[in-house]
Amino acid sequence: MSTDTAELLLHPVRLRIVQAFLGGRTLTTSELRAELPDVPTATLYRQVATLAGHDVLRLAGERRVRGAVERTYRLDEAAASVDPAAVARMTPEQHRRAFLTFVAGLLADFDRYLDAGGGDLARDLAGYRQNAFHATDAELAEFVTRLRALFAEYATLDPGPDRTRRLLTTVLLPARPPAEPAE
Questions:
Q1: What gap in Å lies between CA 35 and CA 110, rounded to an integer?
Q2: What angle do the packed helices 92-115 and 12-21 form, to 10 degrees?
Q3: Residue 92, Cα to own-chain centre: how many angstroms?
Q4: What is the pLDDT of residue 181?
Q5: Which residues face 69 on adjacent strands?
Q6: Which of 5, 7, 74, 155 would bridge with 1, disulfide CB 3.0–4.6 Å?
Q7: C-alpha span between 165 and 65 (Å, rounded)
Q8: Burial of 164 (0-12, 13-18, 19+ CB in 10 A)
């Protein structure tokens, strides 16, 4: 993803739209509107058009509904993925803004969960917590690889009547910045 694409995806409404499609979902604009009811319709359609214009959302189908064309979209995960080189070029201020957008989206997800009658974390198998562990860079790389493999195994499960769509959000940082190497 280029820095321009990073800017494209870090818009708060566009980020929420992208997140709505995670997990291989296809959604019509009407279904997307139902998922993001707090976003004005004109804004939602404009942001969907922007994402489609940059090939982040791909047209998955069209059908006529009462004389209008209803479009179904899917996320092009490659177009929405982060290029490590672009991230490396981001300034600290750009990272702050990106993280703030990310956290604001997470807060909005949690608000929607609570507003929809959530809040019994035990019942819903939900939670939030922070854990700490010590690891070398090699051990951390192994941990991340194993976590990705485990997640990939579950991410391939199809939706079903007994399956609830769940969001797994991760933030991984050192507890403090690593010390500069001695000269």
A1: 13
A2: 60
A3: 21
A4: 64
A5: 64
A6: 5
A7: 27
A8: exposed
Give strand pairing partners of 62.
71
In degrees rounded to 5, what are phi and psi of residue 21? -90, -10
- Residue 183 has a pLDDT of 61
Terminal-to-terminal C-alpha distance of the chain:
34
DSSP 18: H
Q: Specify which residues 28 forms β-bridges with.
A: 72
**111-142 burial: b if 16+ Cβ within 10 Å, else e:** eeeeeeeeeeeeeeeeeeeeeeeeeeeeeeee
- Edge-to-edge, what's the strand order for the sheet holding 57-65? 26-28, 68-75, 57-65
What is the per-residue DSSP string for 85-98? HHHHT--HHHHHHH
Tell me the C-alpha to C-alpha distance, in Å, between residue 93 and each of 3, 81, 98, 103, 148.
13, 21, 9, 15, 28
Q: Which residues lie below 8 Å from residue 75, measured CB to CB, with a gap of 6+? A: 18, 21, 22, 25, 56, 57, 58
- CA 169 to chain CA centroid, Å, is 8
